[in-house]
Amino acid sequence: MEKIIYLLWRDPATTPQVFAAGLHDILASALRDTGVRQLKLNVADAAVAKAVGLKQILLKPQPEALVQVWVDSAITALRAPIDAAIGRAGARHAAYLVTESQPLVNRKHPSRSGERTFGFAQIALLRKPAKLAYADWLDVWHNSHTTVAIETQSTFEYIQNVVIRSLTADAPAIDAIVEECFPSEAATDYKAFFDAPGDEARFKANLNRMLQSVSRFIEPGSLDVIPTSQYFF
Looking at domain 2-232, which CATH architecture does it have? Predict the structure, then answer.
């Protein structure tokens, strides 16, 4: 089984509300009809509008949704019905074959099929800095930073998707896609985000530890960060 992640751009002529509803109601049904094994939708809808302060923008325009599918095979001919359904849902899409690792499985707030997951899901598009060899970049991220991220933030789910290759010709260059789920209060409260509600000293310690760790494998200004609602089917 293989996993594909699609970045999806909204047509400017379509309102965010109509775009989000179409993904949940129309696209999800169409993708189930193609025979995908599993489906997850992430969309920047009204429920995460208050998290605007967490956004980081490198791609302009920035995608407003991710479609994550698990399939028997990602080869072009077998993927065609999925590509077609996703193509009808937005103005543009880019597809990536990825490997998925879940260092922190969501056991605290389990998703229910078709329903919005508790809190919000922060998506980050990562690019490897030129200063690091690929193996060194993965080693720092996976074998050192992972523990720091889990210990310093209020995440209840942490998923690392390493991009194996792009599946569409015009896909923006990215090396990994991260999904972290947070409680709702973390959208506007940095202390809650860094697992230190009401505790200034713990907040500063966690923030500094996180920033120092991130600086080892992410260049400033190289990220896209997109707060989303998560739906699992």
Answer: 2-Layer Sandwich (3.30)
